[in-house]
Every structure is written in structure tokens, then in C-alpha cells.
Amino acid sequence: MSHLDSWTFGELSNTATVSNIGEFDNALNNLTIRLQAQAAAGDSFRKLAVGSVTYGPELFTIYGMMQCTPDLSKDQCSKCLYGTITELRDCCSGRVAARVFFPSCFARLVALVDTVYGKISHNQVAKDVRQSVSLIFKQNSFHNS
């Protein structure tokens, strides 16, 4: 039987913030709700969702990734990811990059936006997301060998 552990967590975020936090947070909310449902609907091998949302007149993009350990039920995964979404809102509103980790799930976001420090390049974001997805699949194949 699986066990949902949400009593401990970690969070990391970039200190750069977007210029329109309200619009960013609305787009991020739409993305996280969609990814939460997709990851929770996964099977006993993989509960992973990756996606993006574009917003604003400048067509900025937020990339997101959510994953649960595959032993969790759909409801447990959804509940765990809800915790990551709540922590993202609490710690990282308007931040261009953030990760929240629980023992049984995690959420990650990276935004391609203009920040107070300049533009985050598409190549930086794409490289970051590819490395994360590659690491996840390596971990999954290691655990399922």
C-alpha cells in the first residue's frame, strides 16, 4: 500500500520576478490545474505531466512539469500535487522559476518572460526542461529495472 507523505517539503525559486504578477499567476494557475489532472491520471508506471501556457500581449510562455511517484493512487497524487501548487503560490508568486518537492511528488515551473533583469531566453528554458525530463526518465527506468 502506498503512503502519501506531505509533512516535509523543499522549495527553490529564482529571485527574478515578472513585470505583471497578476496576469502571470492567472496563467500559471491554469497550467498547474491542467498538469495536476494529467499527472494524477497516469498509470502505475508513470505519473508525469509536462506542458506550457502562453499569456499576455507579448505571448510569454510558462513551462511546467509535475510528477508523482507511481505507487500513489489518482486521488493521492492529485492531493500531493495540490500541496505543491499551494506552496508555489505561497513562496513563488511572480517568480520566473520555481520547484516544490514533497517526498511523493513535485512541481516545477520555468517562464520565458521579460523580467526585471532582462529576458530569459528560450534556449535556457528548453535546455533546463530537457535536462529535468531526461533525469526523470532515467530515474524511472532505474527504479523499474
TrEMBL record:
InterPro entries for the chain: GNK2 (IPR002902), GNK2_sf (IPR038408)
Gnk2-homologous domain location: 6-114
Domain of life: Eukaryota
UniProt keyword Repeat, yes or no: yes
Statement: the UniProt record of this protein carries the keyword Repeat: yes
Keywords linked to the UniProt accession: Repeat, Signal
Entry-linked CDD domains: Gnk2-like (cd23509)
Protein name: Gnk2-homologous domain-containing protein
Pfam families assigned to the protein according to its UniProt record, in alphabetical order: Stress-antifung
Protein species of origin: Tagetes erecta (African marigold)
